[in-house]
Specification:
Blueprint: E1 2-9, E2 15-18, E3 24-27, E4 35-41, E5 48-58, H1 84-103, E6 112-113, E7 118-120, E8 123-125, E9 143-149, E10 152-156, E11 163-164, H2 174-186, E12 196-201, E13 207-212, E14 218-220, E15 225-231, E16 234-240, H3 250-264, E17 271-275, H4 281-285, E18 292-297, H5 300-312, E19 318-322, H6 325-328, E20 340-343, H7 352-361, E21 365-370, H8 373-383, E22 399-407, E23 417-424
Parallel strand pairs: 3-5, 6-22, 17-18, 17-20, 18-19, 20-21
Antiparallel strand pairs: 1-2, 1-4, 2-3, 4-5, 7-8, 9-10, 9-12, 10-11, 12-13, 13-14, 15-16, 21-23, 22-23
Helix pairs in contact: 1-8
């Protein structure tokens, strides 16, 4: 048995500590600040090891009673046992660590790291605005995803394919949980139906259910879901189809987009290229601040949504193109000029070919919105010319990382969004 002080938490939700002899140990069931008695599963010569938790000898001062009876089984909210203030500080640290470890960017020297922010009563707040008693935000998700087997509808138990069926989930909209309970009563245990159920909700109370099979086919009870995104630039009406990407936290999305608008520094005459644009919401929220918006998205239904969202908002200076961003720039948009580029890729980040294509376009500013600090750091390294040894690497101009703001759209989880401000070296915009 070893006594281990837990100092961090991994992306898989395992506490990270070190033994007296310096061995890194990953211990499921622990949180930063805990002192744990652990049985270490050591491999000869290994630099790290798994640990089996025997007992929490001294709990973290940031521990709270998890407001969910399923916290020990469900892997969706590994931070739910910590105060919300502690959750925020851990996420901010993870962003800074990833940028330094992977990208080589040191906060305070290479860029300004702003305090992580979250939605509190419709406005942006930071850890300094709350104390350890402030409760974790609940009912914030507008999209619920459940596994289905027979009449069992719920979440996969941590590390298994077993379904646990919560009577309630405090991060989900109440309307989504009502749908789940109804589905359980309607389905038969011996029949095979669909394998995944998605429930989307809007601020106005509309509900969309999407039943998906193993092959990617789906059936939805609605063609579109209507919602609104409120930012500093105004209110954007949105219509979203079943396959379109949409931020799962509406209040957090408003803060995220407002920060992206600030980082774009648009004054009315610039052109904006919105890559990985989804249903067009980021670009459309900035359309009134620039001369032209061009959005690129590979999911065709999302492109249709983006064009429809432009129409319902009376926006006439926006165009949307269907295709992979890295392909479209060199074909359909060959020779296009853009003063500002917005990047909002999936967790895998941007293709290197896309980043090089963006550098050829040479926008004065780049705003990068990321849900994965690790791939963000990798991509920033390329844009800043630091890959392969310095500013001369790659092609096109070099960009400077200016400012980074984490935004918590996923309380309880380890994830957060990050908004990044970059400028082309030598640009005055």
């Amino acid at each position: 048995m070893d006594t281990v002080k837990i100092i961090d938490i991994s992306s898989e939700g395992e506490g990270i500590g070190r033994t007296a002899d310096g061995l890194v140990v990953f211990v499921p069931g622990t949180l930063p600040g805990d002192t744990a008695e652990v049985e270490i599963l050591r491999k000869e010569g290994a630099r790290s090891a798994k640990g089996v938790l025997l007992r929490i000898a001294e709990p973290s001062a940031d521990r709270v009673d998890a407001p969910c009876p399923y916290a020990s089984e469900c892997g969706g909210c590994p931070l739910i046992g910590l105060s919300y203030k502690a959750q925020l500080l851990i996420k901010q640290k993870h962003v800074a660590d990833a940028l330094e470890r992977i990208g080589g960017f040191k906060a305070g020297e290479d860029y300004v790291l702003r305090d992580i922010c979250f939605a509190m009563d419709g406005t942006a707040a930071s850890p300094s605005d709350i104390d350890a008693e402030y409760p974790m935000p609940a009912r914030y998700r507008n999209k619920a995803e459940f596994a289905v087997s027979g009449n069992r509808v719920g979440y996969l138990k941590r590390g298994t394919h077993q379904i646990i069926e919560p009577e309630d989930c405090i991060i989900q909209h109440q309307a989504a949980m009502d749908v789940i309970r109804r589905m359980r009563s309607e389905l038969k245990p011996t029949q095979k139906y669909y394998t995944r159920l998605v429930v989307r909700t809007s601020g106005a109370g509309e509900v969309m259910t999407i039943k998906e099979d193993r092959d990617g086919g789906f059936i939805s009870d609605r063609r579109i879901l209507k919602d609104e995104i409120v930012t500093a630039a105004g209110t954007l009406k949105t219509e979203i189809s079943p396959q379109s990407f949409y931020q799962v936290n509406s209040g957090g999305c408003s803060i995220l987009y407002t920060k992206a608008q600030q980082y774009a520094r648009l004054t009315g005459s610039q052109s904006l290229l919105d890559l990985y644009c989804g249903a067009g919401s980021i670009g459309l929220s900035m359309a009134g601040q620039c001369s032209r918006v061009i959005g690129v998205e590979s999911v065709r239904p999302a492109v249709l949504d983006a064009n429809r969202n432009a129409v319902i908002n009376g926006i006439v200076n926006a165009t949307f193109v269907c295709g992979k961003a890295e392909d479209v720039i060199d074909t359909k948009l060959q020779g296009v000029k853009a003063d500002v580029v917005v990047l909002d890729p999936p967790r895998a980040g941007c293709a290197k070919s896309l980043l090089e294509a963006v550098k050829k376009i040479a926008p004065a500013r780049i705003v990068y919105v990321s849900c994965n600090p690790s791939t963000l750091a990798r991509d920033l390294k390329i844009l800043c010319g630091a890959e392969n040894g310095g500013a001369s690497a790659g092609t096109g101009p070099v960009y400077k990382l200016e400012e980074v703001t984490p935004v918590d759209l996923f309380p309880g989880s380890l994830h957060c969004e990050v908004v990044v401000s970059m400028s082309r070296v030598g640009s005055k915009l």
